[in-house]
User: Which sequence fits this backbone?
């Protein structure tokens, strides 16, 4: 592996300024993550369709490519070639920026996730806090979309989303304090290394609270209130079409990937698995997709809550459970 | 002269200054008045429909919203008005049957049936027994198909997408049965004045019986999947409540009325066809909320299955059309009112005849229209999400509301 010392020496001998080196490394890494994201979204959309079809006694996409594998590419071409509809009274800047903000927030959240030993873009000391905090900026994108598109349905959807995401942020953050207490670090790689026993067995309450709060955080059923098609048409992205709409879709799937990756890192032993060390990323991927499958399973089985019931669940059930989890963990560690 | 002018100017300036001062004074007062807690807030009015995924066709309403709570509902109908009652005055009696298909297009058989029943009453035609049994069988199948569609959309509106596919799978089997009987899957035009258009094909009854046996088992699973779901119960129970008094005053019929504890079912209250020979129960629930309205439909499917079984057991051989009917029916001068229990409630036809080929006047009493009356009373004051569910549980078909 290339060390930073070697890189610096290379730069010095060839007369490359250090900022160029930094910038090119950052660019390369983010491109790599972007490629992973793109691939991941393609796989996820295909998987979502096939899982949904499986649950609903149908075949799903079958015609484009082998068993419909190229369906998403066909859809992407369709969405790109669509007219970019811009509502008459919409706020031009806010309306245009919203999908980007949401996408970036979800995308940047992936930067600290370790997919193998030393396979991480930036292993921050406070990686856990970063992984919780940065993706929640996405709510700003949703509010911007709702506010900017000058549509009452979108407005209502974004308001709901703001209320929901802010209230589920709290139990979600509290549910992982137990993990930090046991691992003794907020560094994600350190947490994975500390998991000789998966934390899902040591922190069952924390795991459940975290998973439920994550579902609410990424607006999946049964908490998909911001985009309830039965009352709010499509919620915050009602007015979006074509490429901008696709970006929202992209952001949602990346957020789902990030949330399930975080679940795997915190509770399911990260890259740990039988076999040689080079299989670590594979194990990680398998676990991530297992969590995503559970999310899809929930999505295609359950109805959705009403807004007041969502709030009740967040504040009256999940928050006390998370606090109880901290208490129990603390007592056990003291004994 | 110059001095005077300057004086006048001065006076003008003075008065202007005074006016300005006064204005400032007023503004100051207003500024003080404008405290943060006296900011004028305005009610938000949401235009719902006619193109909305949950508008059940072309329903339009204005929702006055206070946050998430809908305080007032102004329904507007008429987007699917096609003048059927007037058209009837320009068609012969037999020619109007296909038009009835297009009214409640989710249960066309019942519309056919109510119309031919009224004409038979008017003209004094005796329908052969086999035709009556066939009508009961297809009528109950139609009720099942319509209720399956209702259950699927009720789930869909609550966010459960998957039950829809299961319910549609079963409904598809009914449509296949109908296709075998009359060649159509949605607008059947199957019933004819004096009987039915065609006899049942060979083996159709056995096929129906096997479908009944299948649905008897699967409907229990579907009940567990949708009606037994914790979230679904939480969403539906207690929402969109209506009392029996209000329901009667608003003229509700069918499942929405029976959910409030009023036992009114035309099949029992004013029996027609061969229903008196059938052994079945009228499903009545007492809460009058959304959940009851959903459960009633599921229970009625089970009762309809019982009726179909009995009808298949009892069906006699014989003609399917009243003998000696002229091609053009000319009922005697008079009027007749006939009604049946359609999937949505009490569906009535009132026909006035002047003895000619065409009806003098035809009036339809659609249960969807009556049920929609109760919508504001049920939904006002509840959450926006529940308003949509409440509209769904009334199961309005706008072809019938507007006609």
Assistant:
């Amino acid at each position: 592996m290339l060390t930073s010392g070697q890189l610096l020496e290379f730069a010095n001998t060839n007369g490359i300024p250090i900022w160029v080196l930094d910038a090119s490394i950052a660019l390369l890494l983010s491109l790599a993550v972007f490629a992973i994201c793109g691939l991941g979204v393609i796989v996820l959309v295909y998987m979502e369709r096939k899982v949904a079809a499986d649950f609903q006694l149908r075949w799903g996409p079958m015609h484009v490519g082998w068993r419909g594998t190229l369906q998403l590419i066909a859809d992407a071409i369709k969405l790109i070639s669509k007219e970019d509809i811009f509502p008459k009274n919409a706020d031009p800047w806010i309306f245009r920026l919203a999908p980007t903000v949401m996408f970036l927030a979800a995308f940047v959240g992936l930067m600290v996730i370790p997919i193998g030993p030393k396979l991480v873009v930036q292993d921050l000391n406070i990686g856990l806090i970063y992984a919780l905090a940065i993706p929640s900026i996405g709510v700003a994108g949703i509010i911007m979309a709702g506010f900017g598109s000058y549509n009452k349905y979108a407005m209502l959807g974004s308001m709901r989303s703001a209320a929901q995401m802010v209230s589920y942020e709290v139990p979600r953050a509290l549910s992982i304090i137990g993990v930090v207490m046991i691992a003794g670090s907020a560094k994600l790689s350190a947490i994975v290394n500390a998991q000789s026993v998966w934390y899902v067995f040591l922190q069952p309450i924390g795991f459940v609270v975290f998973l439920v709060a994550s579902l609410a955080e990424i607006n999946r059923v049964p908490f998909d209130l911001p985009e309830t098609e039965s009352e709010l048409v499509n919620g915050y992205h009602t007015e979006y079409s074509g490429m901008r709409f696709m970006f929202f879709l992209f952001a949602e799937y990346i957020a789902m990937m990030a949330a399930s990756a975080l679940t795997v890192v915190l509770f399911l032993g990260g890259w740990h698995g039988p076999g040689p060390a080079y299989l670590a990323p594979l194990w990680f991927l398998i676990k991530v997709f297992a969590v995503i499958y559970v999310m899809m399973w929930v999505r295609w089985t359950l109805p959705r809550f009403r807004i007041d019931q969502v709030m009740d669940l967040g504040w009256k059930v999940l928050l006390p459970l998370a606090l109880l989890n901290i208490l129990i963990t603390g007592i056990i560690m003291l004994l | 002269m110059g001095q005077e002018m300057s004086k006048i100017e001065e006076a003008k300036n003075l008065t202007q200054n005074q006016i300005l001062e006064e204005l400032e004074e007023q503004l100051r007062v207003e500024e003080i008045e404008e405290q943060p807690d006296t900011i004028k807030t305005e009610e938000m009015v949401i235009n719902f429909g006619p193109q909305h995924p949950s508008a059940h066709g072309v329903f339009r309403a204005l929702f006055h919203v206070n946050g998430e709570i809908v305080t007032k509902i102004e329904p507007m109908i008429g987007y699917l008005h096609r003048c059927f009652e007037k058209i009837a005055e320009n068609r012969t009696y037999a020619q109007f049957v296909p038009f009835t298909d297009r009214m409640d297009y989710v249960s066309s058989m019942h519309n056919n049936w109510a119309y031919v029943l009224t004409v038979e009453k008017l003209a004094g035609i005796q329908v052969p027994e086999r035709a009556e049994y066939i009508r009961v069988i297809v009528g109950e199948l139609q009720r099942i198909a319509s209720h399956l569609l209702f259950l699927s959309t009720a789930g869909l509106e609550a966010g459960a997408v998957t039950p829809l596919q299961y319910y549609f799978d079963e409904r598809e089997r009914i449509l296949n049965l109908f296709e075998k009987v009359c060649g159509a899957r949605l607008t059947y035009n199957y019933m004819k004045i004096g009987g039915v258009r065609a006899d049942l094909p060979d083996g159709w009854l056995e096929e129906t019986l096997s479908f009944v046996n299948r649905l008897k088992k699967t409907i229990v699973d579907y009940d567990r999947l949708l009606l037994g779901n914790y979230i679904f119960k939480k969403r539906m129970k207690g929402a969109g409540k209506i009392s029996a008094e209000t329901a009667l005053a608003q003229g509700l019929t069918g499942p929405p009325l029976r959910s409030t504890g009023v036992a009114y079912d035309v099949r029992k209250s004013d029996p027609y066809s061969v229903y008196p020979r059938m052994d079945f129960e009228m499903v009545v629930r007492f809460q009058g909320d959304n959940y009851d309205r959903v459960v009633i439909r599921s229970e009625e499917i089970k009762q309809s299955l019982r009726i179909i079984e009995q009808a298949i057991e009892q069906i006699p051989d014989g003609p399917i059309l009243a003998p000696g009917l002229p091609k053009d029916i000319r009922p005697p001068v008079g009027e007749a009112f006939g009604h049946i229990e359609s999937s949505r409630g009490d569906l009535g036809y009132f026909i006035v005849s002047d003895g000619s080929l065409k009806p003098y006047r035809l009036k339809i009493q659609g249960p969807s229209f009556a049920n929609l009356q109760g919508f504001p009373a049920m939904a006002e004051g509840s959450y926006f999400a529940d308003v949509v569910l409440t509209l769904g549980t009334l199961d309005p078909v706008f072809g019938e509301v507007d006609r």
Remarks:
- The first helix of chain B runs from residue 2 to 33.
- Residues 83-402 of chain B form a domain with the Cytochrome-c3 Hydrogenase; chain B fold (CATH 1.10.645.10).
- Chain B has one domain: 83-402.
